[in-house]
Specification:
- This protein has one domain.
- Helix content is 15%, strand content 42%.
- The chain is globular and about 65 Å long.
- The model has no long low-confidence stretch (mean pLDDT 93).
């Protein structure tokens, strides 16, 4: 079986850079600074496959032994680790695309917008093209073969 290799990045957005950098420190992410206080995120060169991280290990206090630490897995999400530090009302777009040789080609785009404590999300996938094209061309979805083998 082949490995999936991809690339990912966000658009540029305004945020509290120091707080964001601290929040994403456990994850394989890199912050790129643009002009006018804008930043962009992408997976670091340490990323296994070029996609967004899904988890990281951190040292956390041991609940059973005060003063000791244990390794704990934490899951990455834009809602928890990025959006609290983004300027309210600003839209962050996170895109990723990649392939497992010619077997599968995949891509996703997510849009996030923080309104107070709420984070609104919009998601689209390259896979959405099947349903969209079936509807647009008035053909059965099942009649469209998949871009895979």
């Amino acid at each position: 079986m082949s490995q999936w290799y991809g690339t990912a990045r966000t658009n540029y957005f305004h945020c509290d850079l120091a707080a964001l950098a601290e929040a994403i420190e456990p994850f394989d992410l890199r912050v790129y600074e643009g002009g006018d206080g804008l930043v962009m995120l992408s997976p670091s060169e340490m990323s296994d496959d070029g996609g967004w991280p899904s988890w990281a290990q951190i040292d956390a206090p041991d609940p059973e032994d005060a003063g000791e630490t244990i390794e704990k897995e934490i899951e990455f999400s834009f809602e928890e680790y990025v959006m609290p530090y983004v300027v309210e009302g600003e839209v962050v777009i996170a895109m990723s695309a990649g392939a497992e040789k010619l077997r599968y080609v995949s891509g996703n785009a997510l849009a996030f917008c923080r309104r107070g404590l709420e984070v609104q999300i919009v998601h689209i996938s390259l896979q959405d093209i099947y349903a969209l094209s079936a509807e647009k061309f008035a053909v059965p979805r099942e009649s469209i073969t998949a871009c895979e083998y």
